[in-house]
What we know:
The complex is a heterodimer.
Chain A lengths: L8 E5 L4 E6 L7 E8 L6 E6 L2 E4 L4 E4 L5 E6 L8 E9 L11 E6 L1
Parallel strand pairs in A: 1-9
Antiparallel strand pairs in A: 2-7, 3-4, 3-8, 5-6, 6-7, 8-9
Chain B lengths: L4 E3 L2 E4 L5 E6 L6 E8 L3 E9 L2 E5 L6 E5 L5 E5 L8 E8 L10 E2 L3 E5 L1
Parallel strand pairs in B: 2-11
Antiparallel strand pairs in B: 1-3, 3-8, 4-5, 4-9, 5-6, 7-8, 9-10, 9-11
Amino acid sequence: LAKTTQPISMDSYEGQEVNITCSHNNIATNDYITWYQQFPSQGPRFIIQGYKTKVTNEVASLFIPADRKSSTLSLPRVSLSDTAVYYCLVGGAGRRALTFGSGTRLQVQP
Amino acid sequence: KAGVTQTPRYLIKTRGQQVTLSCSPISGHRSVSWYQQTPGQGLQFLFEYFSETQRNKGNFPGRFSGRQFSNSRSEMNVSTLELGDSALYLCASSLLGTGGTDTQYFGPGTRLTVL
């Protein structure tokens, strides 16, 4: 399974855009990149998934460069409720076990 | 569509006891995976079940076991509980468990405290 590296923590203020980058140098050809959000004492919540270029949904955007060795989760105009831990995972068809890294603890301040 | 449900939500046991946790996946999902989350070790994969068969297993001792029923509901059991088993146990379901775009959806977890 591809190992991922993320910053341990980030701080931001309400209304700002937050970009969290994940490094995954040994990503395989059929691997997808998935991001989860987790609040304390709750299960991780799926945010977004992508394979290449850019994916956008109602809550976030995911940017993946051509070499796919990294990806960036972009949260537009964060609010206090976005304070959580964000996990980047890489896996493809047949790789059924999810390996979670340490995640990035995002703290949004007023 | 209802999400993944886990029961009980909270549990307190003493060392040496055993415990059984239950997970009901999203309707139509056939793959159920279990994870343990602790402050020190983070989120760790325990095992995955598909069509009542264990397909994948993490690096946990044999005291941790599980099973899946024909309706895809799953249970995990921990025997001879140790203090270090105190954790949030998470269940996740997906349609086929094939990875890729087959996204896993997590339940709220069961908080187990071993005294």
